[in-house]
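Before relying on records like the one below, remember that each one covers exactly one chain. Contacts with other chains, cofactors or solvent are not represented anywhere in the record.
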Amino acid sequence: MGGAVVYIGYGTTISSKRQINVGSCVMSLVHNKTTTDSTEQYPKMHALLGFLFPILLALAAFVLSLLASLAGVKAGFLPDSNIALLDTSRMGLDAVLVGNNAPSIVRRSLGMGSGKTNNENNKLINGTNDEVAKAIKDAVGLDQFYAVHAWTICSGTFVNKNDPSGGLDVRVCWPLYQINLTDLLEMDLKLSGPVRGAIREVGAAAPRIPRVIGDLFTTAYLLCIFSVLPSVIAAHFTLPRGPGGGYHRPPFWTHVLNLAAAGLAFVMLVAASAVATAGANRIARAVRDEAVWLGMRVEAGARFQGMAWTATALMGVASLYHVLAGFLTSRNRSSKSRV
């Protein structure tokens, strides 16, 4: 390309030996500015967001699944985040209040007509329901609720005696490996006959389920924190190599590794959340079928399930992000190969 003569001032020229290719200089400056802007500003932000987004999702899922697993590990720690809550605050109350009109099987099971429960009923025949409920509790030593957690079973009283949804005042928690729900309820109730059979049906459904849920959630939150490691590896390939270097798109295999880790954590969280939901429903069904006539009620842990399924959704979004990022990287490589 021929050189262009540049006039400087009036009547002064640059000789042909010192001619400047003005077009090339301008294009070079424009190209350098564009390259600098594109490698330091937009891709930098893209790289940072791409690095932080899946990590933040994985950390949030880790915290939620960890809290769901450790709820109730000691008295007073997240007492409302239980797998299932057995409400025994009115257990036997209806049978005592109706007196001789109660079914004979219920009256015999509760000791009506003889024993200390009958004595309490005679004392409070004109009393209020709360007084009768307190008398029964004192007579048989029964707590108002039994909360089933992943690693423990806790018992205590409701903060608001007339409203079970008003909060839980936990008295004591037992590790699942030391005691199961059947033995616990039989020990507290100290009753025999059909009551024992009904309690055993409930207890048979309860003790094994939380242990499985606890193991699943433990595995899930460990996988959540492990899924951060591939993102750190990908960041190593993304960051600039030197002071003047630009940000790079991470290799395709890092997206595959990220997807494998996040996907495994997601699958484990799905399994844990599904088992927790189904387990709570099974315990509730056992109570409805076998012990509802005793006045025992059960509630599935809505807060626990909310934490579990939220953690599952977060890891699902993280997995979907890695799928999309891998697809874009693959398409970008294909476009460059065609050029």
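Confidence is low (pLDDT under 50) at residues 1-42, 97-103, 109-117, 124-128.
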